Amino acid sequence: MTELAEGTVISLIAGYYDVETSAGLVRTRARGVFRKTKEKPQVGDRVKIKLDDQGLAYLVEIMPRKNRIGRPAVANVDHVLLVISAVEPDFSLQLLDRFLTFFAWQGVDVAIYLSKSDLVQVDRLAEIKDQLAYYQKIGYPVYLSRDVLAEELPGAIGQERIWTLAGQSGAGKSTLLNFIKADANQATGAISTSLNRGRHTTRRVELFKLGAGFLADTPGFSAIDLTPIKLNELCGYFAEFKRLAGGCKFRGCQHLKEPKCAVKEALEAGEIAQSRYDDYLAMRTEISEGRIPEYLK
Ligand SMILES: Nc1nc2c(ncn2[C@@H]2O[C@H](COP(=O)(O)OP(=O)(O)OP(=O)(O)O)[C@@H](O)[C@H]2O)c(=O)[nH]1
Ligand SMILES: [Zn+2]
């Protein structure tokens, strides 16, 4: 066998692994070695493939994974596009903070998209926009328009980077994907036709090419479990707390009742949103009690 290429697994179909390489899309089978090691290639995996004498392609090696998120899982996620709805389900800062904390813990960057803004009253929308402006200020890109998002997203996805959608069920992930896909399909038209892909009836994870990288469809994120996070590390996942923590008197300050705490000072000065601080405290309780609160189940 001769070495052929490296690539990214973009979908799994009936025992075949479709691998996107610089030379195009290759349909491969995993070689027996994986059966022995019980290691299964997953969507998002960077892999090596080889071609045998008959021209059949085999997936022979999986490169180390950066992470695995969602269910079904996507490997090597670089960035999450978090879809949060203005209504149906109701906009919730608590939920937003949970998602952001979870992904910060996973080491994945997040951009936020507000869906269903067309379904709320102007004053409610203004209120939500105001709240989202805070998140923009602390470093999360916020998209309020899907047109702007569809235009900017391809340019934001770096070489072979993997973005994935996330958000509550019903938030509008598939709707957004289909909207963006309509554009993306122009770039990937040749490949789509060669594989004869239509609408999928089964729900599974698949990457599609967007910009210089990939966007993954909707892995489920039902109840986010924050309990594996170390209690004293939680504050490090709140971007604005982390930035201020250097100004706290004590190293390892948890921003609770410690004297000369820069985070509490910023909270009192109104620079940190009270809702963020309250959510931080609620998550601390959740982690120390080791269970997801009843109302979130
Ligand atoms: N008016 C309006 N309706 C929307 C918008 N986004 C999504 N919807 C509707 O909301 C419903 C749920 O949207 P989906 O895209 O299926 O939501 P999802 O996040 O993919 O949900 P799951 O597949 O359960 O995870 C559908 O009926 C969509 O038509 C929006 O921006 N405006
Ligand atoms: Zn502090």
Element layout with pairings:
Blueprint: E1 2-13, E2 16-21, E3 24-30, H1 33-37, E4 46-51, E5 57-62, E6 68-69, E7 74-75, E8 79-85, H2 93-106, E9 109-115, H3 122-137, E10 142-143, H4 146-156, E11 162-166, H5 173-195, E12 207-210, E13 213-216, H6 239-244, H7 262-268, H8 274-289
Parallel strand pairs: 3-5, 8-9, 8-11, 9-10, 11-13
Antiparallel strand pairs: 1-2, 1-4, 2-3, 4-5, 6-7, 12-13
Helix pairs in contact: 2-8, 4-5
What does the model show?
Residues 75-222 form the EngC GTPase domain. This protein is of the alpha/beta class and 297 residues long. The chain folds into three domains: 2-62, Beta Barrel (OB fold (Dihydrolipoamide Acetyltransferase, E2P)), CATH 2.40.50.140; 68-216, 3-Layer(aba) Sandwich (Rossmann fold), CATH 3.40.50; 231-296, Ribonucleotide Reductase Protein R1, domain 1 (Orthogonal Bundle), CATH 1.10.40.50. The protein contains eight helices and 13 strands. The protein has helices spanning 33-37, 93-106, 122-137, 146-156, 173-195, 239-244, 262-268, 274-289, and strands at residues 2-13, 16-21, 24-30, 46-51, 57-62, 68-69, 74-75, 79-85, 109-115, 142-143, 162-166, 207-210, 213-216. The strands form three sheets. A six-stranded mixed beta sheet has the order 10-9-8-11-13-12, with helices on both faces. Strand 6 (68-69) and strand 7 form a beta hairpin. The radius of gyration is 22 Å and the shape is globular. The N and C termini lie far apart (51 Å). Residues 184-202 have low confidence and may be disordered. The site of guanosine-5'-triphosphate has 13 residues, from helix 5.
